[in-house]
């Protein structure tokens, strides 16, 4: 895993995506979904996470200071969390990122008992 600076922001896109998308389409999602101009507003270390429809793949755009890096991870034995199980927040902490990358579910909805 890339060592992120402490001030880095980690964003999770709110809809599953097609894992065939590359730099251009993912950059479009960053502009539209996070309202961040990827050419101007992003800081060194910012990471943008995208989860796939089948929950076996994850893609991330990482800005290393000189350009964008495209990271892909495929789970072999388990799945990534269902994006519908994620709360509506667009950012996560770096410790939540580690859990996410290892297949953990960040938030489970429990039934409300009254």
Describe the 3D structure:
The chain is α+β, with helices and mostly antiparallel strands. The protein has one domain (10-90). It contains 2 helices and 5 strands; from the N terminus they run E-H-E-E-E-E-H. Strands 4-3-2-1-5 form a 5-stranded mixed beta sheet. Helix 1 (23-33) links the parallel strand 1 and strand 2. The longest helix is centred in the first third of the chain and has 11 residues, at 23-33. The radius of gyration is 14 Å and the shape is globular. The mean pLDDT is 81.
Keywords:
114 residues; alpha+beta; five-stranded mixed sheet; 2 helices
Write the layout of secondary structure elements.
Layout: E1 10-12, H1 23-33, E2 47-51, E3 57-63, E4 68-74, E5 91-92, H2 94-101
Parallel strand pairs: 1-2
Antiparallel strand pairs: 1-5, 2-3, 3-4
Low-confidence stretches: none
Shape: globular
Distance between the termini: 43 Å
What is the helix/strand order? EHEEEEH
Structural class: alpha+beta
Q: What would you report as the Rg, rounded to the nearest angstrom?
A: 14 Å
Number of helices: 2
Sum this structure up briefly.
This protein has 114 residues and is an alpha+beta fold. The chain contains two helices and five strands, in the order βαββββα. The protein has one domain.
């Amino acid at each position: 895993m890339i060592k992120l600076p402490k001030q880095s922001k980690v964003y999770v896109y709110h809809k599953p995506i097609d894992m065939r998308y590359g730099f251009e389409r993912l950059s479009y999602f960053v502009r539209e979904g996070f309202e961040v101009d990827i050419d101007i507003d992003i800081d060194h270390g910012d990471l943008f996470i995208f989860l796939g429809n089948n929950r076996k793949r994850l893609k991330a755009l990482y800005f290393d200071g000189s350009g964008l890096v495209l990271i892909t991870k495929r789970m072999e034995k388990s799945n990534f969390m269902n994006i519908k199980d994620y709360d509506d927040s667009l950012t996560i902490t770096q410790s939540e990122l580690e859990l996410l990358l290892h297949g953990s579910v960040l938030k489970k909805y429990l039934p409300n008992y009254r």
